[in-house]
Amino acid sequence: MLSKQKIKELKKDNNGVFKQLVFENKRNNAYLLNILENLGQLPKDFDGSWLPDLLESKNKQIRFWTVKNLGKLNNGNYLNTLKNVAINDIDTTVRREAVSSIGRMRNPNTKKVLLEILKDNDPKIVSQAIRGLLIFKSDNEVYEQLKSLINHPNEMVRTVIYKEFFAEQSIKSKTNQPHTESYDYLKNVVVNGDTIEVMKLLKDESVHLTFTSPPYYNARDYSIYPSYKDYLGFLAEVFKEVYRITKEGRFFILNTSPIIIPRISRQHSSKRYPIPFDIHPFLVEMGWEFIDDIVWMKPEASVKNRVGGFQQHRKPLGYKPNTITEYLMVYRKSTEKLLDWNIRQYDWKTVKESKVKDGFETTNVWKIDPCFDKIHSAVFPVELCKRVIKYYSFMGDLVFDPFSGSGTVGKTAKSLDRYFFLTEKDDNYFNYMKSKKSNEMFDKRPTKFLSLTEFQQTIK
Ligand SMILES: C[S@@+](CC[C@H](N)C(=O)[O-])C[C@H]1O[C@@H](n2cnc3c(N)ncnc32)[C@H](O)[C@@H]1O
What we know:
The protein is α/β, with parallel strands linked by helices. It has helices at residues 4-12, 17-24, 29-38, 60-73, 79-88, 92-104, 110-117, 123-133, 140-147, 155-171, 195-200, 228-245, 275-285, 308-313, 339-344, 348-354, 382-392, 408-415, 427-435, 452-459; strands at 189-192, 207-212, 246-256, 259-261, 271-273, 288-297, 325-333, 365-367, 398-401, 419-424, 448-451.
């Protein structure tokens, strides 16, 4: 086996020596790979005429590295060879590398080949060809062909094209407010009213983060919907408004779990509704980009015992585990901008002070005890709110909870130097939040508790 040093030397005084060595060792894959992987940068006058033969190898690693080295030669004479690999090789990685090599040539002769590759049915190959073609964006034919891919069946391809050709026009003029700021009339305000009606009064891109737990269909007393379909429709309407009022590229964390509606008699069975899974398609459809699923895990002793019956009879099919989890589905408002863009909007002091300290949760399973409240039957534990707010917002941001209940999101946001905006329809819960006011330190910006009409007036 040749050492790296030896390969380096042979590469410099190039007189066909590799050709000879490769020929002598043509059945020794390890030997060939060692050369191919260690060739590094190639001198301008490097004789690569021995490389194309290796594309016949059955070993895909050898073909991959051969393509990579052919690419480094940046020699238009190999364009057809690379095209052939890009279209016909049986391995996607090898094909992709061939398209990438063609793209790296940055040679106008490659345009025709890359345009042909756009018709490939592997989206990864198409994306690679797009990358190579983008440098020729000013060429009319390339421009038109790329732009037409906005109707491509693959979503990744469409996203790239959207970002390159359509994004700028579409995001302009939504708001004049700087990304890090929020309107004073929303800061530390609780509105007693239907969240949709309240949100309709808000400007586009008003809030930085939304964390909420909606009503559990008809599983609790405060929520009565004519049907599950109506319920999902209602949630979809709420989250569409949340989408509109969320700032570009910011997050929405939705806490839900499958619920159970008990059976009406022993002759009937109970029904389970998988809310997180049913609402998800609506969210994606309206533009929310799915980011993560976090599981909130509670101690078994804290949840209703469902497994008791099975414990006794042990008959298959009758198994009903104790459900100790809920979901926190994390979504981001779609944008062509990277997260870095969002972060860069803040000054260094805010970024520094908002940094999450050691001891943060490293997995997507959050073990947190539930919280019980004498007035509200479904309150968030403060620890859950703390994590969401610390991980998904900066100090000074505006955090929104459309279904605020007892106001845990608001209280926690305040304690973490964020502002909050809450809506709650139920008078009792609204008054409950109001009654707790004196217990909290609403010093700098006292909380305002407003009716819908009062709130409307503050906006004017
Ligand atoms: C699951 S609870 C939220 C509890 C809250 N996370 C807490 O920590 O206290 C859902 C709340 O949404 C409220 N709600 C239901 N429909 C509403 C609507 N259309 N507008 C505003 N609030 C609503 C209910 O009254 C209930 O208090």
